Amino acid sequence: MEDLFSKLKWTFNWKKSDSKALEKGKLPESMKKLLDQAIDAESKLSGDAMRLMKQLDGDEQNQNYKNLKGMYKDSQQLLCALKHIHDFHEMPDNSVLSKETFDAQMQKATHLEKTSVQNKLKNRPPTAIQPMIVVSSFLVFGS
């Protein structure tokens, strides 16, 4: 997972003292920083998807529109989960936050970030929206 974080330009420096903070119900700074990075990336990703959908004029018959709509939905659900962890210091299902459960949630976040733009737009979008796809890819992958 460290390789994915590196590609996404996210950092996570877990310390032994972070476990103690979690036991006290506090969100360790390392988790807060990573959540902030992931929330920012998800916000950008869903914003890009919405802008691209608007350029397609809400054409439900257009496969790119359908794909972007699915990406937007997935991104919003993940964004909600990440914000829940950030705000309530627990998992979205109200279970206890631990390094293991946090790692599993962040694995989902990196998977969505890594695959969204590439996989959802396989059908060659219209030329008018291609520059925005490049921007979205840059925001997600950093290059």
Describe the overall structure.
- The model is unreliable at 124-143 (pLDDT under 50).
- The longest helix has 27 residues, at 29-55.
- This protein starts with a helix and ends with a helix.
- 71% of the residues lie in helices and 0% in strands.
- The chain has one domain (2-141).
- It has 143 residues and is mainly alpha-helical.
- Helix 3 (29-55) packs parallel to helix 5 (99-120) and helix 5 runs antiparallel to helix 6.
Number of strands: 0
- The helical percent reads over 70%
- Total number of helices: 6
Structural class determined from secondary elements: mainly alpha
Head-to-tail CA distance between termini: 19 Å
Quaternary state of the chains? single chain
Largest sheet: none
Shape: elongated
What is the count of structural domains? 1
Strand fraction = under 5%
Radius of gyration: 17 Å
The parts where pLDDT drops under 50 for at least 5 residues are 124-143
Note the topology.
Layout: H1 2-8, H2 16-23, H3 29-55, H4 63-88, H5 99-120, H6 130-141
Helix pairs in contact: 3-4, 3-5, 3-6, 4-5, 5-6
